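Bench notes, bay 3.
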Amino acid sequence: MKTKNNFSAKGKALPLLIILLSGMVLFSCKKNNNAPPTPKNISFSGMLSGQAEIPSVNTSATGSVTATYNPATKMLSYTFTWSNLSGAPIAMHFHDGAAGTNGAVVVPVSGFPATASGSVSGTSSPLNDTLVNDLMAGKFYGNIHTQSNPGGEIRAQMSKQ
């Protein structure tokens, strides 16, 4: 009488194959915990001066503009700081324009103090894709206007940091 040998190499092949395939299925179904990366904020800055205005302005006023663009919200958070203006600011904003050119106002700034020296911070509305592209390409500038210089007393071209 012959007995069946379930422990032969031939008899082990099918159970071994089932175990290997089960392991492959389990590992291939592993949960992917890699969420898409959160876009990083992008920083910009510029030094405000009368020489940067088009045409240039003879003034002792100086200042700086810092800004952070949030790609998730498409908003620009900013701080303008200035000193020694010829008078109180009457307007302040960001323009869409390359260095050496004047451009349209695209981000108005409000709530600034009516003092020859001061600072103001704020956040824009979401920027459209054209404005985002121009900001990234260095075609954005901030400026401050005064009664003596209604076209702008000091200007800063925004540079990516």
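Next record in the batch:
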Amino acid sequence: SNMEQALASTIAGSLKQAKRPLIVSGTSCASLAVIQAAYNVAKSLPSKDKQLTFIAPECNSLGLAIMGGRRLQQAFERINNDLADSVVILENDLYRRATSQNVDLFLKTAAHVVVLDSLENKTTEKAELLLSAATFAESEGTLVNNEGRAQRYFPVYPATESVLGSWQWLTSVIENPKWQHHDALTAACASAFPDLAAIIRSAPGADYTVKGSKIPRQSHRYSGRTAMHADINVSETGQQHDPETPFAFSMEGDTAQVQPALLPVIWTPGWNSNQAINKFQQETAGHLRDGDAGVRLIEASGTMAWFDDIPPAFIPEQGLWRIMLLPHIFGSEELSLHSPSIAERLPPFRALLNPLDAGALGIVTGDEVEISDLGGVPILKIPVQIEKTLLRSLLGITTGRPEFQSMKAWAQVTLKKVNPEQLDITEVYL
């Protein structure tokens, strides 16, 4: 339309005039065409300081993609076809990945279900054996971020006796004495996956010391720790030993010679905490001295050619709607939903419709519609909100809501108006 052409021209003009344009894209739309279009836009810009970044849905999405593996549907098929009888689920709520109907059948059919997790969820409720896994703040590991950078994380404080890192639970039942420590497991991972070979350089090993001592986690301002438990015992208990990292649960040690990327605390006399980072950089807002944290696994190898497989423009289909997932800054992410103060910021549970679509159905804001799959099977009934910025034949659904955890972007559905007394919000099966 003329309006769309005018908007495209305005956006293109703004980008062309920008001195440091940044193009951001990702996988939330479940569309390869969108990602390729973002690259084409960035490539076309004249600015020498243009940047392009892609956002992954979770903290280690890229790391898992590099490792490869099979789809969850294949696991369902192996269990259902008696090709496997036991399931081990590692820190993953399957009810966010597939429909309750499929997951229920999967877990019911399996002879044994073992779950390792740090939070309770619908999957842990179905576990025959549930093992308490340490959180990221209590364990060590490596994540690959959206930049393709392998980043090590270390425990902030020791886990309680009944809690172990997931890798420790797993290696405790593997009859391989070489994998009893995290450094050895990291080396084995780097050897098994060539694209991850550099992860062993993402941080020093557990044997790293500075002048014979491990790096202290605690700053000199932690000297009051002796009074923390004085009401129980005046004598201070010994600090717990950490054999898996180059850090100590202590404030004793020399930090003057530690590379900035390994400093648990950034501090310099006369500077506020967040400003003190300038003293550890090669230049203000520049790279850290002695190198930034982590190691890049993916490096640019030149400029790619244009993506010329341009899909046809979206054409509304009479009587059919496409699901458009709508993430929000509060509550859409899985873990934030476990915080009541953040979860309550999630917008009301509603479906968004274009005014013209709503008018054709005789719907106004607050009315309920029944969503059905293409076979006519009802999925759920839900209130509607009119949204004029949404294109016709799109049905906007707020992501993150438990009722829509397994919702698939771009799924095609049908709609019809229902009476208010028929409202019955149930879980989606798509």
